[in-house]
Structures are given as C-alpha cells and as structure tokens.
Amino acid sequence: MRRGDRLASFGFVAPFLAIYLFILIYPLLAGIGLSMKRVDLFGGGSFVALDNYARLAADPVFHAAILQTLLLAAMIVPILTVVSLMLALALNRPTRDAAVFRGIFFSSSVLSVTIVTLIWRFVLAPDAGLLGEVAQGLGTSPLPFLSDPTLALWALAITTIWWSIGLPMMLFLAGLQQIPGDIYEAAALDRASRWTIFWRITLPSLRRTVVLVVMLQTAAQLQLFGQSQLLTAGGPNGATRTMVLFMFETAFWRWELGYAAAAAEILFMLIVALTLAQYWFTMRTSEAGNGR
C-alpha cells in the first residue's frame, strides 16, 4: 500500500478513533484519577494515592457485593444461555406461529427496567402478588421471594432472565440460519438421531455464537443494577446488593466519589479479566479440537 493510500485510510478512521478515545478512553483515565482522590460532590478533592483501594480491600460490605454479583452472574448466564438456545431451536422454522412467538419472547427486551421490576413485584410480592394468591388458593403459605436472602437472589435472577432472553435468542436464531441445509440432509440420509444431529452438527456450528452470548451476558450481568435497586433495594440486609448498587450508594448517598470510582475500576478489571479468560479458554478448546 502506498503512503498516500495509508494516509487516506487513516483519514477515514481518524474521526471514529477520536470519538472512541473521547467517549471510552478518556472517562476510563479520568476514573482512575478520581479513584486516587478523596472527593465529594462539592469539593475539589485531595490526592490519597491507593488509600481508596486499601479501604475497599478491608470493606466487608464491598466483599459481599462482589460475591453477590458473581453469584448472580453464575445463576443467570448458564440458564439464560441454555433457555435462549432451546427457544431458538424450537422457533427456527418459517411458520407464522413461530414468528409470533419470536416476537412475544423478544418483546420483554424492549421494556425498561422500571416496567420489568414493577411486573415482577406484582408477581412475587407474598401478600398480594400473583404467586402469593396462587399459594393461598392452594392452602399453603406464600414464599417470601423478596425478603428471604436466598430467594431474593433467585428473584433477581429470574427477573433478569425473563428480561434478557430476547437478544441471545435472536443471536442463536441468526447462527442457526447460517448452518447449510445440506449438512442436515446428509445426516437425515444417514438416519442420524435428533440428539446426534444436535450434538455433532448444530452445537459445533454454533460454538462462536455460544461464546459470544456467554461473554456478552457475563459482562452485562456483572453490571446488574436496576433490578437490585428497584426490586429489593439491595436487601434484605444487603443480601442482593451488587457492585454497581454499592457504587451508586457510595457516590450519591455517602458522596464519596473517589471511593466509588475505585470500586468501579475494580469492577472494570474484573470484567476484563473474565472476558480474557473466556476468550483464552475458547481459543485453547478450538485449537485442541482442530488438532484432533
């Protein structure tokens, strides 16, 4: 490529690169700088180096928030991936009924988190909620989904899965429609069972889509906030306080912006580390499969 062509190529990329640097890199660097200050909403702040990180390392509330965030991600991502794949397999057909159900299952994704939490509060509330009424109708005591620490985590997980099912399902549908039909025809001629077709053809063909869904959903669920704030307010006794809710409370209730920024940087490093680990594991598995 000639020098003039390289300059022309850079000219096309430069505006987007400048916007990327301004929107993503500058806030990241500014956040790192803020995390090394003791500052509130009205003051200029003072430099404290790594003191905020040392406080976080000894803060049991922050430790609990990390654990609960990882627990929620571990509860949501596998179930969400499997259920959305099953839905995509069931609805991957050119019929009007399948199109209607695809629209129904995707419709929850366009709702705001406020609407979603209101819907599920009406369902889960033990005194006047849908499940509470059903339990009383059956003569049993309603389960305290929003006041029991273990059940409250599952309430957040179910709410999030219901809300997030649409996008993974559409990604799997797009992946399924990229698989050549002649492979399935050859499998049918060999009288392969449905399980063999799924395990030997469909799932390997969707490997990249599965990895994409898992990586996107892991990054998304580690940033879970609205459901925790609106459905349980982090309770009971902080049992559903996530890392982002911890940052929100620290920044806007306690006005410790530097402390909240340090927590945000730790969350950022956690997301990057998990994403790189998943990418490394996927590449290693792929190389091992190709080397057989």
TrEMBL record:
GO biological process, one term: transmembrane transport
GO cellular component: plasma membrane
Key words, A-Z: Cell membrane, Membrane, Transmembrane, Transmembrane helix, Transport
Domain ABC transmembrane type-1 as annotated: residue spans: 66-278
Subcellular location: Cell membrane
Record membrane topology: Multi-pass membrane protein
InterPro entries in the record: ABC_transporter_permease (IPR051393), MetI-like (IPR000515), MetI-like_sf (IPR035906)
Listed transmembrane segments: 7-29, 65-91, 103-123, 151-176, 257-282
Family assignment from sequence similarity: Belongs to the binding-protein-dependent transport system permease family.
Name under which the protein is recorded: Sugar ABC transporter permease
Species this protein is from: Sphingomonas suaedae
